[in-house]
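Customer ticket, subject: "Can you confirm the structure for Zinc ribbon domain-containing protein YjdM?"

Message body: Hello, I'm evaluating your service for our small team and ran a test protein. I'd like someone to confirm that this is what the system normally returns, since I don't have a reference to compare against.
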Amino acid sequence: MSGLPKCPQCGSEFTYEDGAMYVCPECAHEWSKDSAAATDEVRVVRDANGNVLADGDTVTVIKDLKVKGASLVVKVGTKVKNIRLVEGDHDIDCRIDGVGAMQLKSEFVKKA
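Agent reply: Thanks for trying us out. I re-ran your input and got the following:
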């Protein structure tokens, strides 16, 4: 075997190196060698107490949070049900009753 990774798009094992990229001759997908190594890492999101969060968890807000662009405040103790983890600076996507759809940072919540 060549030791090269399979194509992440079509699963072909006939990939080849082209400089700093891997190329799949079957579907013409190209990806960097750095991203091939990064796909093996699993992203873990933790709350303020260090508990691991997952999609569908219920969390509680631990600090008053001002809502940007509105005069609303999310109060301490607000329960947020059915969270969804996303990539980025604000790593929790959710819907809060009375406020609507929001993104929160995991450092301002604790697992309920």
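A couple of notes from the result: The longest strand covers residues 92-96. DSSP finds one helix and eleven strands in the chain. Feel free to reply with more questions.
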